[in-house]
Amino acid sequence: MRSWAPPTGRRTDAVDGVPQLPGQGPLPQLYDSVRRAVAATAPGPIATMYVCGITPYDATHLGHANTYLAFDLVNRAWRDAGRTVRFVQNVTDVDEPLLERAERDGIDWRELAAREIELYRTDMAFLRMLPPDTFAGAVESIPSIAESVGRMVAAGATYTVEEDVYFSVDSDPHFGYVSSLDSETMRQLSADNGGDPDRPGKKNPLDPVLWRARRGGEPSWVTPIGAGRPGWHIECASIAVDTLGPSIDVQGGGRDLIYPHHEMSAAHAEAMTSQWPFARHYVHSGLMALDGEKMSKSLGNLVFVHRLRERGTGAAALRLALLDTHYRVDRSWSDAALGTAAARLDRWRRAVSVEAAPDARPVLDGVRAAIADDLDTPGALAVVDAWAGSALGAGGTPSQGAGELVVDVVDALLGVAL
């Protein structure tokens, strides 16, 4: 599947749209949901990251933007630390929510998916998100997903219920380590997120479907394991293992994916490869709310990125509005955040134009340190704010090229174009 183009900027020597900064930054520390603590990332020369993508039955909303912005910062921090980054993202372009929306709207599900994926690409390019190296859809990945299910069958980790293939969570000695939830909470979350804990014939209510056998009126594909389509969790597990290998540095997504999705996809990947753990870091962003209610498609209270684009909101202001709150904090969106961001952007742009601006090396060091500290974006913004205040107040000792360095720092590490 086609990804989107990397961001453009004023630097012709930028690599994949990222300006090269002097020296080398530190590897970021990130909160790990398994350890429940901030821990150092320690990738080798190639850092690997898998971030779960959209189910394309609606447009990109600010909850998506907030999540993908967090992992865009991880990508940028690793690059600044001298690592080559291999970043993979999926698109769940066949699943119940998509099929239900297509039926409701009287549109072919493939047409709906194609339309929303293209809108998503446009939104991500607008927001200057670094594109994934592999942007993979479930449909194009079905042959490899079916092969992955076949490996799990051979490993004795599955069983069938009326031709549907299920994963047995009891076959996994590590099952539950990602979320550390009790079985009753898991059961409720499974029911709330597309699972079928009460289906007769299942060995354990928590067992997720790997392969859904062909049913009338539903899309299906003929494979060596039978005609049908994949379950949600096996899709991500298979794509991640196929593209990044049996163990990755970061598995990312919103906090609502911890269970069941990341718990199950980890169990699937580990059953396929016999390696544990699947990810060395499980990183999750907070949830976005509007007027005190979680922003979600089911509640119909979404703020869409393309709507903000259409009314003239700039990418830099929108990124700054999102960066003003730490990525792990649940936040409530309001248009006042955009006003604050626009005022900050104006100050920064005026400051970098000052000819006798103060030395910007403390900005480079300060922003690097803040981002390395579990993506402390409020701290990073405060560093630039302080420098901008000095520049506009003619404070400090003038330094040649200070404004240009700040422009590069803000672009490379925060993705904000001044």
Which characteristics define this entry?
single chain, 418 residues, alpha/beta, 5-stranded antiparallel sheet, 13 helices, elongated
Q: Catalogue the unreliable spans.
A: none
Main sheet specs: 5 strands, parallel
Widest sheet, order of strands: 5-4-3-11-12
Rough shape? elongated
Q: How would you describe what is shown here?
A:
By secondary structure, the protein is of the alpha/beta class. The protein contains 13 helices and 15 strands. It has a five-stranded parallel sheet with strand order 5-4-3-11-12, sandwiched between helices. β6 and β7 (164-167) form a beta hairpin. α4 packs across α6 (232-244), α9 crosses α10 and α10 packs across α12. The protein is elongated.
List the helices and strands and how they pair.
Layout: E1 29-32, E2 37-40, E3 46-51, H1 62-80, E4 84-91, H2 96-105, H3 109-126, E5 134-137, H4 142-154, E6 158-161, E7 164-167, H5 183-192, E8 209-213, E9 221-223, E10 226-230, H6 232-244, E11 248-254, H7 258-273, E12 279-285, E13 288-290, E14 293-294, H8 305-310, H9 315-323, E15 331-333, H10 335-351, H11 361-372, H12 377-392, H13 402-414
Parallel strand pairs: 3-4, 3-11, 4-5, 11-12, 13-15
Antiparallel strand pairs: 1-2, 6-7, 7-8, 8-10, 9-10, 13-14
Helix pairs in contact: 4-6, 6-7, 9-10, 10-12, 11-12, 11-13
